[in-house]
């Protein structure tokens, strides 16, 4: 078989065609035109549908945005109400407890209210109706906060009764109701808006659906017609394809071997050939594309506008010239993937010069365009950031001396904020030492280190040469290793440093507010109560994720079984459906079954016709608030009980102090008449001494309780025998036992028991228990003190056959001011602090105490458990030696109470000293200078000049620097002793001063002088 000469073979670029095919070509051309027309109609219909769909989608999005804004306004209003409630709760807590820790929620809420009001204003910025309501809301909130502040001002001013009276009045509730009413009105308006926008969204959605269906139907019909015509045309064209097969084969090897994509068309713009690269880029195979319009296969759009770009082959066929592609052109492949392309199209002419087709050559430049685009974006972002950031920014070139030490730097680039931040003008090209000669060396060394090491650094430093400004600086090297360029990002934080603490507090409040807002569970249901929406708050508050929650009956999920059984849940929904909303504060349950106190509101959603569409619920976990409220109620009850006990204590204290005063006063009257009856005088004095000791014991107990409560009491422990403490306690209690004709039996272990204890305090424990037993046992009773060792501890029991303790009162017998309730036996009195003191002293000794009684009139037993120690310390012979005889001292007594001064003068003289007195501080100074006493016993509270002032003056005089100053006062707390020491006193005695205390003091002073 011989091949025809190449010149006689048809070519795709050859204009020659058999005359019999001319009419077929015209028919195919006509069918392609019809097909193009159908495609155009389909495209127009789809475009119109897309435009309508877009418009309706925009409406839907806008409606959704407005619905979200409405929900946000509701949530922010609810947040404002919660803040006002928190402020009110904190205020009431403080008024009830006087504990300032309850002002923390008040202060936090007070600080957050302005920000919350600003959020509401921002949320309603586009709503003129709500804006008109906003001043009323702000006014009501301000009135309520002012009312809260007035009560706190009264409280801080000491008028707690007036503050509580103001709280109990209807003013606060009225103001709170005004706030609630304003918020309810604004929320109701938002709910109405929500219903209207829901109807608009539904209308837009239906319109969009109808538009899509219509455009899809017409588009499919047009495409089907076009497809039919195209298929028919392709079939006709296939018959003629065999004629051109040999000619195409000549080009096939060449076109398939090049790296660019090539598409050839005939004069009508229909594809005749695609090489493999073109197949890859367009997604069409040569077989699929042959006979198709180039536009159908080679679809190109503008990168920016997405508008269809004219096919360059069409232009080449029309104008007969080489056409390059426009910039920013994208090729859309068959699978709708997109590529950037580049290159050109050229016409194909026959031997006569007639255009018989076109060839399109293009290449994929997506990677290059991506790199270029990314580079441009980086550059644009850099310049935008560089010119718009508030922080100062500059690039410097470090300058080094011959030794490589940084000594200066030059500014290469600066941004507009640079001059404002530093105050340096026209800095580009200038050196820093030229602009600020006194700039600190630290800056040069730091930037030099960044340039040489390549390690970035962040630091805060003051630049004294720049008006003392403080800067927060971040510096990093620019370029490769060895580059002297350093980029510096900095901020003038001079003012910020002054308010750093305030900023941190503000950030803390802001974070707290955000966390509170995020703790809201907000969801919607249909009319049957099935969940249709979900937010993160549902997960946080209720524990349900979205899949678990959507579609479920919310009422059954979150309401407690008892509320469901009582119909409370359904009643809430019925109320929300009927009146628009229903608030609730009740226990709810989470996914895991745990319960929490929920505060929220359920809102009924209706369409314009009033039909119920569903519900929206906003709720938050208020368990902590509920706990605080319960605690406040308990605190109020405790305060009431404490106030009652305090009143009883004060009445009892007066009674207890009058009891010993009565016999003392009577004894004084007897002494006046019995001066010649020594036996009677001795008896009366003995009685008066016991009553005085009883008064002193009462006062000492009160002081000890105060010291223990404040943690000021310290034990002076040493190794002692239990027998010593018991003996001391019995000796102190024996007069009271004898007076009531009680029988006391003491039983101790045969072997000595050693304790590490404070002898005086341990004796005080046993003495108080014995006194208590004697007081609550009728005359002639029996009291037993026993001790036994068991498991490394000694158990000391004090048991009596007295009035006993009722079972219901045994639990609180050791509480402060606790009294046994025995109304028929008023003779059993006391302050109610003795057992409290005993318990605290026992616990300070690392022991414990317990009480047992079979009930009223059955006696009682107190058991003290104490740890046993080693052998007791032996007193050294020096401690047992007799006290040597003292020399006579010169003593000055200063007291404005002349009777007290006279009695004290008699006691001091009886101790063998020379004594003189003064009535106030001024007389004391004169007497001290003239009398030159060894010791000054001085009262503190005196007219004209008090004891502190007199002591300081005496210490400033040369003659008074070595005098021994002793403060004699009724105040004996640690802070009182510290204050007298600071005033110059050497010693501190508490009135009344016992003769033994004075004798010991005089002996210690005499020994120190020796």
From TrEMBL:
Segments traversing the membrane: 34-55, 205-231
CDD domains the record matches: HisKA (cd00082), HK9-like_sensor (cd19410), PAS (cd00130), REC_2_DhkD-like (cd17580)
EC number annotated for this UniProt entry: 2.7.13.3
Any Pfam family the entry gives: Response_reg
Gene3D superfamilies the record matches: 1.10.287.130, 3.40.50.2300, Histidine kinase-like ATPase, C-terminal domain (3.30.565.10), PAS domain (3.30.450.20)
Residue ranges constituting the PAS domain according to the UniProt record: 247-320, 506-563
Protein name: histidine kinase
Gene Ontology CC annotation, any one: plasma membrane
């Amino acid at each position: 078989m011989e091949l025809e000469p190449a010149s006689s073979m048809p070519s795709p670029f050859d204009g020659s065609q058999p005359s019999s095919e001319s009419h077929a070509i015209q028919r195919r051309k006509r069918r392609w035109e019809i097909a193009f027309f159908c495609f155009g109609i389909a495209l127009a219909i789809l475009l119109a549908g897309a435009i309508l769909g877009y418009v309706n989608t925009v409406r839907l999005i806008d409606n959704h945005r407005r619905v979200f804004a409405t929900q946000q306004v509701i949530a922010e209003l609810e947040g404002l109400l919660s803040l006002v409630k928190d402020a009110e709760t904190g205020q009431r807590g403080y008024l009830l407890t006087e504990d300032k820790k309850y002002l923390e929620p008040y202060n936090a809420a007070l600080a957050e209210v302005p920000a919350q009001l600003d959020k509401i204003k921002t949320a309603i910025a586009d709503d003129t109706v709500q804006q008109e309501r906003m001043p009323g809301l702000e006014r009501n909130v301000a009135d309520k906060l002012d009312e809260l502040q007035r009560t706190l001002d009264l409280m801080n001013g000491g008028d707690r009764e007036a503050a509580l009276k103001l709280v109990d009045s209807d003013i606060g509730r009225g103001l709170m109701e005004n706030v609630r009413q304003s918020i309810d009105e604004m929320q109701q308006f938002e709910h109405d808006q929500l219903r209207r926008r829901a109807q608009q969204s539904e209308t837009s959605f239906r319109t969009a659906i109808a538009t899509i269906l219509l455009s899809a139907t017409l588009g499919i019909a047009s495409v089907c017609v076009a497809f039919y015509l195209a298929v028919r045309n392709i079939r006709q064209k296939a018959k003629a394809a065999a004629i051109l097969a040999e000619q195409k084969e000549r080009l096939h090897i060449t076109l398939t071997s090049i790296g660019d994509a090539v598409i050839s068309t005939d004069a009508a713009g229909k594809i005749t050939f695609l090489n493999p690269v073109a197949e890859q880029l367009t997604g069409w195979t040569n077989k699929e594309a042959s006979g198709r319009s180039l536009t159908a296969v080679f679809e190109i759009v503008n990168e920016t506008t997405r508008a269809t770009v004219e096919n360059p082959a069409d232009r080449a066929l029309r104008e007969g010239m080489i056409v390059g592609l426009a910039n920013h052109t994208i090729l859309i492949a068959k699978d709708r993937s997109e590529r950037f392309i580049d290159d050109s199209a050229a016409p194909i002419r026959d031997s006569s010069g007639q255009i018989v087709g076109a060839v399109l050559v293009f290449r994929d430049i997506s990677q290059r365009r991506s790199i270029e685009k990314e580079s441009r974006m980086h550059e644009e972002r850099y310049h935008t950031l560089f010119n718009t950031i508030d922080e100062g920014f500059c690039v410097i070139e470090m300058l080094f001396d011959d030794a490589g030490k940084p000594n200066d730097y030059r500014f290469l680039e600066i941004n507009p904020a640079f001059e404002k931040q530093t105050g340096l003008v026209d800095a580009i090209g200038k050196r820093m030492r030229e602009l600020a000669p006194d700039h600190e060396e630290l800056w040069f060394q730091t930037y030099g280190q960044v340039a040489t090491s390549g390690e970035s650094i962040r630091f805060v430093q003051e630049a004294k040469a720049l008006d003392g400004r403080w800067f927060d600086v971040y510096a990093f090297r620019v370029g490769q290793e060895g580059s002297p360029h350093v980029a510096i990002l900095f901020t003038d934080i001079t003012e910020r440093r002054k308010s750093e603490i305030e900023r941190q507090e503000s950030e803390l409040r802001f974070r707290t507010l955000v966390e509170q807002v995020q703790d809201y569970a907000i969801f919607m249901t249909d009319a049957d109560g099935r969940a249709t929406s979900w937010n993160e708050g549902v997960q946080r508050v209720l524990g349900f994720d979205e899949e678990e929650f959507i579609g479920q009956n919310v009422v059954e999920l979150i309401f407690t079984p008892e509320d469901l059984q009582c119909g409370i849940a359904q009643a809430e929904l019925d109320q929300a459906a009927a009146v628009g909303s229903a608030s609730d504060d009740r226990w709810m349950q989470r996914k895991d079954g745990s319960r929490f106190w929920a505060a929220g509101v359920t809102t009924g959603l209706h369409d314009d016709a009033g039909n119920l569409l569903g519900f929206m619920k906003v709720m938050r976990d208020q368990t902590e608030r509920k706990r605080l409220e319960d605690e406040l109620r308990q605190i109020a009850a405790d305060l009431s009980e404490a106030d009652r006990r305090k009143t009883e204590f004060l009445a009892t204290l007066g009674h207890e102090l009058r009891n010993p005063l009565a016999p003392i006063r009577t004894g004084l009257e007897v002494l006046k008449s019995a001066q010649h009856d020594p036996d009677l005088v001795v008896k009366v004095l003995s009685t008066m001494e016991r009553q005085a000791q009883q008064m002193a014991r009462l006062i000492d107990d009160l002081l000890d309780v105060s010291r223990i409560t404040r943690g000021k009491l310290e034990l002076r422990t040493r190794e002692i025998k239990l027998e010593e403490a018991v003996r001391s306690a019995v000796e102190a209690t024996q007069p009271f036992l004898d007076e009531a004709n009680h029988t006391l039996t003491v039983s101790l272990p045969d072997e000595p028991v050693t304790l590490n204890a404070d002898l005086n305090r341990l004796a005080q424990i046993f003495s108080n228990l014995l006194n208590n037993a004697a007081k609550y046992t009728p005359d002639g009773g029996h009291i037993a003190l026993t001790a036994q060792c068991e498991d490394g501890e000694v158990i000391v029991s004090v048991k009596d056959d007295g009035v006993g303790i009722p079972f219901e009162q045994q639990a609180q017998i050791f509480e402060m001011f606790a009294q046994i309730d025995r109304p028929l036996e008023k003779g059993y009195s006391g302050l109610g602090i003795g057992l409290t003191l005993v318990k605290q002293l026992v616990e300070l000794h690392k022991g414990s105490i317990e009480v047992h009684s079979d009930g009223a009139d059955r006696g009682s037993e107190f058991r003290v458990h104490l740890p046993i120690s080693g052998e007791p310390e032996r007193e050294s012979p020096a401690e047992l030696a007799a006290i040597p005889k003292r020399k006579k001292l010169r003593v000055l007594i200063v007291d404005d109470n002349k009777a007290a001064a006279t009695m004290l003068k008699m006691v001091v003289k009886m101790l063998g000293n020379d004594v003189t007195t003064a009535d106030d501080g001024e007389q004391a100074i004169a007497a001290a200078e003239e009398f030159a006493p060894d010791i000054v016993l001085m009262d503190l509270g005196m007219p004209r000049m008090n004891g502190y002032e007199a002591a300081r003056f005496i210490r400033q005089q040369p003659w008074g620097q070595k005098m021994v100053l002793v403060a004699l006062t009724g105040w004996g707390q640690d802070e009182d002793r510290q204050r007298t020491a600071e005033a110059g006193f050497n010693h501190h005695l508490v009135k009344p001063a016992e003769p033994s205390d004075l004798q010991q003091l005089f002996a210690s002073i005499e020994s120190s002088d020796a």
